[in-house]
Design a protein that fits this description.
alpha+beta; 2 domains; four-stranded antiparallel β-sheet; three-stranded antiparallel β-sheet; about 50% helix; 5 helices; 9 strands; Immunoglobulin-like
Amino acid sequence: MDNPLPGSIPQLFALAQDAGDAADTHGAAIGLVHNTAAKIAADLGAARMNENLYAAAKTAKDAVSGNLRNADSNARAFIKAVAAYFTQIISDGWTAAWEVTGFPNQSTGVPTTQDERLILCASLRDYFNANPAKELTNGTLVLTAPQADHLYLTLTDARDAVNEANTVAGQKKSLRDDAVNALRARLRGLISELGLLLDDNDPLWLAFGFNEPGASSTPDVPEALVVTPGTAGVVHTNWAAARLAQHYRVWKQVVGVDAKPVAMASPTDTEATLTGLPSAKTVTLTVTAVNNTSESLPGTAVTIVVP
């Protein structure tokens, strides 16, 4: 039986933790030399650290991206208000008199790209500086050179912050990927070394978190299916992880409608949200476990009336 490594990083970390614990407990007795508990712990620690740094960089990127959206939204609102004002004091619709204001593409509308909106804020600042009599302050409506300059600088700073955050996140992701790949290489090395030290049916394979090479490759039956009603036509499903499963299939059979179960989802995690189910109908749900060689029998069925 193969011992493929999980594609999911959390699952990979969990496997590495199990392997490291087993190496610490059994490594000396079986003669483990090249992929010891200390080496596994070092690679796992580096991968976890870099995963945390990448997660922090993504959080920072999300924050500055929100600032950019707000800055751009404020610039849009300012430009839209200026355009409405200029239709009163210049002309209703594009004419050559609009060119000096900086509105691009012979249009009096809000520019479609952020680059154009940024440049227009600077142009409007210059226009109002050159024509202070055209500035307007009316309650909350402030159409002035200082306001245009403020929006230009805020948008510029927000764009710079996003570019920097994207760069940092990219660097952190590269470091995370390198560390995760090193951990994968360590675990593949461990599998190879165990293959030289253990029989194919030795239960110590399980202690390390791996499959026994000589055992059946059919995944265990997924059990403990829990079905929770959601909004109209939606139910949420959760179940216990099945040994040897690489992904799962969730099957539904609408009583009185489906002649046999129909596959609705194929998640890699132990949960799925099913949508588009017929409201007020009774549905029977089951889950099977799947890997690259076989599929388990379905687990215990659960029946629910769809909300």
